[in-house]
Design brief:
single chain; little secondary structure; three-stranded mixed β-sheet; about 5% helix
Length: about 290
């Protein structure tokens, strides 16, 4: 069965050209330009979403309320009020930007090259074959590597390690700033007044009054009557007031304020940029 180069794949025509030697003047006219190969994809795959930022550090415990003032001797002062709750800790720093997306796959094969120069009139040449499709690129993978807490106030950093197609994303996230100290608790109430000191001892008894003068000696006769006893001396002055009793013990220390709530979770990092467009595939071979 004869080979028809207008409707038969190139191998048939190649056999004809291999077994029949012809000159340039005996060739057919230039064959039409081969069809354009398919266009490669315009956009690479979207990069993975950045990792979520770490939780902010817990705010510090509020300061202990001061000791109540020392009252005079008496009953023990009531317990001071509990310190107010410490403020909420600051929000943790925003997580780092996600890594750049992987390079998109290679584009499809480019258009067929131009036809050869026009030859002498003859049979119509076959259509050039479409070039092969370029190989698909390898899609990389990203895994979270190390996550380290940095010093407060430093800048968050990220770096990528590993070899294609397996990569590791390592993060350094600074610690949140320490929350302010809680307000001072109120002073304890003053203790009750102590009891009155004991009464001083009585003063010594005053001296006895002087004895009255002796009457003149009467004639001898009956003995005279005994003179009356002198009046009692005045009462001595009252003793000095006793010293004030010792001061009562200090009021109990106020209870420690509760721990502030945990800081809010950091915002999710932005989406990584679109990967670069894959390169155009190689040009297909020129038609025979």
């Amino acid at each position: 069965m004869p080979c028809n180069c207008n409707n038969t794949p190139p191998p048939c025509c190649e056999n004809i050209f291999a077994t029949n030697t012809v000159t340039r003047s005996q060739r057919g006219p230039q064959g039409p330009t081969g069809p354009t190969g398919p266009t490669g994809p315009s956009t690479g795959a979207t990069g993975p979403t950045g990792a979520t930022g770490p939780t902010g550090a817990t705010g510090p415990t509020g300061a202990t309320g001061p000791t109540g003032a020392q009252g005079p001797q008496g009953i023990q002062g009531i317990q001071g009020f509990a310190g107010i709750q410490g403020p909420t800790g600051t929000t943790g720093a925003t997580g780092p930007t996600g890594a750049t997306g992987a390079t998109g796959p290679a584009g499809a094969t480019g258009p067929t090259g131009p036809a050869g120069a026009t030859g002498a009139t003859g049979a119509t040449g076959p259509t050039g074959a479409t070039g092969p499709t370029g190989a698909t690129g390898v899609t990389p993978t990203f895994t979270i590597g190390t996550v380290t807490t940095g010093a407060p106030g430093t800048t968050a950093t990220a770096n990528i390690t590993g070899t294609a197609p397996n990569f590791f994303l390592n993060l350094i996230i600074p610690q949140g700033a320490t929350g302010p100290t809680g307000a001072t608790g109120p002073a304890g109430t003053t203790g009750a007044t102590g009891p009155t000191g004991p009464i001083g001892t009585l003063g010594a008894t005053g001296p006895t009054g002087a004895t009255g003068a002796t009457g003149a000696t009467g004639p001898t006769g009956p003995a005279g009557a005994t003179g009356t006893t002198g009046a009692t001396g005045p009462t001595g002055p009252a003793g000095a007031t006793g010293a004030t009793g010792p001061t009562g013990p200090a009021g109990a220390t106020g209870a420690t304020g509760p721990t502030g709530p945990a800081g809010a979770t950091g915002a999710t990092g932005p989406t990584g940029p679109t990967g670069a467009t894959g390169p155009t595939g190689p040009t297909g071979p020129t038609g025979p």
